[in-house]
Fold this sequence. Notes:
By secondary structure, chain A is an all-beta fold. Helix content of chain A is 0%, strand content 52%. Chain A starts with a strand and ends with a strand. The mean pLDDT of chain A is 93. Chain B contains no helices and eleven strands. The mean pLDDT of chain B is 94. In chain B, strands 2, 4, 5, 9, 10 and 11 form a six-stranded mixed sheet that branches. Chain B has a five-stranded antiparallel sheet with strand order 1-3-8-7-6, with no helix packed on it.
Amino acid sequence: xxxxxxxxxxxxxxxxxxxxxxxxxxxxxxxxxxxxxxxxxxxxxxxxxxxxxxxxxxxxxxxxxxxxxxxxxxxxxxxxxxxxxxxxxxxxxxxxxxxxxxxxxxxxxxxxxxxxxxxx
Amino acid sequence: xxxxxxxxxxxxxxxxxxxxxxxxxxxxxxxxxxxxxxxxxxxxxxxxxxxxxxxxxxxxxxxxxxxxxxxxxxxxxxxxxxxxxxxxxxxxxxxxxxxxxxxxxxxxxxxxx
Lengths: 120, 113
């Protein structure tokens, strides 16, 4: 279990440019999530995949944002025409349904190290 | 809409003290609650997950409790150490087919040697 990985760890770009981030989840996890975190705030949900299907999108995910998970493994998050307000830490998480010894289901999310985006 | 609040926003304690971090949520219909640790500029490390049917969960010096009816959870840290210094985040999974976590803003803990 190598954990969730994200690439790049840091990205500096100029306003108006497009950027793409990658997330590799824990190998057996079928669910993958993207969150955004700004300074002094908790992470905010952006979108969620179950296998390759994008099942939920937040209102925060404007039409400049697009996420894919083409084969149900890694995922990419693209931001087009970046704005200074997009500067944040972008966090990826993954999970699958686990069960306790008593058979109760639970869903624990594991996070990657994040990609810090700075838009100049 | 679920809202999560964490009090206090910051806490400073001398090494060796026991301490409690608080988390409250507005909608008691939750699937589970997770406590995370975040070091500056880093990702989140999952500490404990409490299922909605559980009252508490323990891992080493950490103990998390859950009172769904009052919309509260606490994270108890025993015998604090300087290495515990970090921001602690509480997050709620409200279930109903949506697995998104709703986070509080966190409590920044400083343990003074």
